[in-house]
Amino acid sequence: MSTARAGVLLAAILALGGCATPSYVDRGKGETASEIWPNQVVFTLHDAFRASPPRCVALLPLDGGPPEAASAVRRVLFAHLAPQGRRQVPLARVDHVLAALPEAERKDMGKLGAALNCDAVLAGEITQAGSDFFGFYSRVAVGVRLRLTRAADGQTLWEGEHVAASHGGSVPLSPIGVATGILDAATNLTEEQHLRVTDDLARRLASTIPDQALAELDDPVAEAPKLAQAVPPASADVLARAEALAARGDYAGALAAAEKLAGENPNRADAQFLMGRMLVKLDRVPEAEPAMIRAVALDGGNARYLDGLGHVNALAGRTDRALAAYAMAIDADHADGFAWYNSAVLLLGNGQSRPAADAFYGAALAYLKRSDAGMAGRALADLKSLGGRGLDLGREIQTIETALGAYPGEKPS
After folding, report:
1. What digits encode the pLDDT tens for the residues 233-246?
2. Whether the Cβ atoms of residue 341 and residue 311 lie closer than 8 Å to each other
3. Predicted TM-score (pTM) of this structure
4. Among 147, 328, 366, 377, whose CB has the most other CB atoms within 10 angstroms?
5. Which of 142, 133, 143 is nearest to 187 (CA)?
């Protein structure tokens, strides 16, 4: 057997023999990564993070690798960070702001953080992306190296790197084994496997970033990041154009379109609601409340409009009014996870632990009803934290854990 073929065979034996479960290497605790053992998640949590955890994270476009791989890793990483208790800047908004900034300012973390209204920036590069096929053995791999930086002073808060891989095939010991190995190796090279590997990569790295905050959700109609969509022409429906501009991160453009529509059609609740949302995103909260009130006055049975009213009141420190609006939203739509969750955060802030626990439980059930396992998991984590404060929440926790156990994916250890 040639040296090259022997090397490939050795790599296959190592890959197929014992790397299904990743190992986590915390360099901050003095642990050292192996140079030969595969499937390591290597990370460092710096003291600057512990001293002052970020309240917001803006995930920049990733450098290196095929553009489609970089885009996919970024979208999936955003989705896995979303359930954590800190605000994320929508990817489209990050891209819009980057495109509008002069090139010199894009690399100035202070100016970039100010433009995004976010105190931390997550950047990185693709280190591996692709697949290898050796007949009886195949490997699909995606790797990334990331760094979380505080925008104001450039301090590194967290670093992480990982290569997630899927291995197919087997070491052939007979003619039948060769045929079986070739089939398994070929099956491993599907698009589904690429997506699964990307998900493993993002989930594992996201799990090493501590989730230390408990924060309200900030947009009643927020969705998972999507591919960029074309903005309808000016001749198209004005609201559709405004929503498309908002989805692309152009909040000022969306606000202008919504204001124009509301001026021409004062009875359009949807235009008032969009105005309110964009004003909040542009950090103009006092101006947002009248728009939200008008939306609710025009369509009081719409849970999303009531969510918006609750959110602007919470931002303004009017907790009682916020809770009242969220209660009306839940009456309008019992599966409104946004209202349940934000109510729980506000109640907990008021020292009302038992009502807060009931609201977190309601949030988990609501998100499960909408098949949002990520947010259900976030509500479950908060419920467990309250269970550690002397509340008897065993039944509620078991109910959510059992329901989440039916979802596919790698379970946390």
Report:
1. 554 588 888 999 99
2. no
3. 0.77
4. 366
5. 133
